[in-house]
Each structure stands twice: as structure tokens, then as C-alpha cells.
Amino acid sequence: xxxxxxxxxxxxxxxxxxxxxxxxxxxxxxxxxxxxxxxxxxxxxxxxxxxxxxxxxxxxxxxxxxxxxxxxxxxxxxxxxxxxxxxxxxxxxxxxxxxxxxxxxxxxxxxxxxxxxxxxxxxxxxxxxxxxxxxxxxxxxxxxxxxxxxxxxxxxxxxxxxxxxxxxxxxxxxxxxxxxxxxxxxxxxxxxxxxxxxxxxxxxxxxxxxxxxxxxxxxxxxxxxxxxxxxxxxxxxxxxxxxxxxxxxxxxxxxxxxxxxxxxxxxxxxxxxxxxxxxxxxxxxxxxxxxxxxxxxxxxxxxxxxxxxxxxxxxxxxxxxxxxx
Length: 325
Fold this sequence. Notes:
The protein is an alpha/beta fold. The protein has helices at 7-25, 29-32, 48-56, 58-66, 79-87, 100-106, 150-161, 176-184, 197-205, 228-233, 235-254, 256-267, 271-279, 290-305; strands spanning 38-44, 70-76, 93-96, 111-118, 122-126, 142-145, 170-173, 190-194, 208-212, 221-227. A 5-stranded mixed β-sheet has the order 2-1-3-10-4, with helices on both faces. The chain has a 5-stranded mixed β-sheet with strand order 7-6-8-5-9, with helices on both faces. The two termini are 29 Å apart.
């Protein structure tokens, strides 16, 4: 369904982009001037790969060699606020789930899909004492998730599989921090969220999953989203940044226990929760494929038909590819 390339092919593809970027940067005086003074990257505490990339300063080292002075890291709690910042020109690149770019494009934000990676695992959670056993039992119930987040897509899909409409629930739009308080206070009936919040809820609060993205019908991808201006003005720099993130991603998939320890140290989230999250995670990064675009277009069309976004959009119009430069 996802039509993903294998790890070696992904690495070769991004390595080729990086090689091309170096050629472009060295091609002549005009190309040599195509360097920003600073690259601004948005990240979430739950994005362990970016947290590790930041900690190791590997992007800073690569870009310094090209003549970029600094890298600024800006933390966000979840995807929609990050893409608001991206659309406002406050950051140049960030990693989000499948849904935030749909809302951002529908809202007119000038951004592009730059790379794809498997999404963190998501779940529809209920409290350990809840009588609810299936998604079908959520009819008329309060279900919390971040508005415009990937959890909203999982909610829509899970309801459809259970024979329910989005209008059959009482959507409660909460950030992960606010949803945690509401969940523990018994103020919502279910919570749809991603790892590591999913793992934390299981570990600390005894939350039960009644549906999760281990069911491939609910699964999707995450994306690295860039400002269109940045992607087109500094394509070599963008491909260099993605190449370093790819290397860290591949290392993470091969060193999950060490990654859990590093992520715990960097975020304050316990090792046990990170270990549970990484045990069910997939680690790869590569170009946005036709399969990704088809999946995103289907999501956009579904949201437009439900009135969740105000207009029809064409996802393929905002994909950054080296050949377009």
C-alpha cells in the first residue's frame, strides 16, 4: 500500500540528492551565494530522531562546512502549531504527521512536502476502568485529539471502520498536555494520540487501546515539510539537512535500546515508555512517492467531503523534488 523503497534505495536516493546539491553549490558565483545564514528546524519532544539529531549537532557540522553559520531548533507540542510557524516564515523545516499539511495547504500556507517517514504508532485509548470495549461504543461519546493533527485522521478512519460517522461523536479538540489532564480526570471518554504519549498513557495510567495503527487500515506516514521559499531558494542546503536526518533515522532503527536511553535523557520521558514506543516503530526516511501522494489526496478528499477542511486541494501541487529545481 505504501510502496516504500527499501532502506538501501532510500539512502542512495538521498545521497544522490546530496551529491547533486554539492555540485549545485559549487557551480558558480550565483549558486555559491545560495546559502542562508541560519536554518530553523521545528521539532516535537516526541520526535526522537530529531531530538537525537539536535543533540549530536550533526546538521550544524555539515552546514558549517558549506558556509551556513547556525541552526536554530524550535520546539512545538504538536504538528498544527509547527506548520502555522512554517507558514508564517518563523521556521524553515519541520516533521509532522499526515494531517497537519492537509490543513495547512487548505489554509493557503506556502509549504512543500520534502521527505516521507513512517508515522509513529497511534491508538484510540480509554481508561482502565472504562466499560467501552470497541470503537463502535464511542457513539455519542467525548473523544479527544489535537485538531488538525494526525490523530484526527486516525479518529475518522477508526470510526468509519466501526460503521460510525465523525458526526456520531463529540469531538473534543485538545493538545496532548490538556488531553492528558482531561483523560486522567475522567472528563473525556476516549483519547486518540501518538507515541510516546500513547506509551506513557499505557505505562503510567493503565490506558487500554481499543484500536491502533498496528491495523494497517489505520496507518499512514509522516512528512518533513519545508517552506516553499526555503526549498526553492536553498535546495542544496535542504537536501544536506535531510541526508543527515536520514543517517540518524537509520542509526535509530538499528540501535533502539540506545535511542530509548538517549531520548529519555533528552526529554525527561521515562526509558520504559520510549522503549515501548520504539519497539513498535518503523525507521526509514526517503522521497515522497506516488503512493504517499495518493494516500494524502484520499485524506484531503475525505476531510473536504466531511466539511473538516473548507475546500478541495491537490496535494501533488506542493511536492518538492530535486528535478524541479
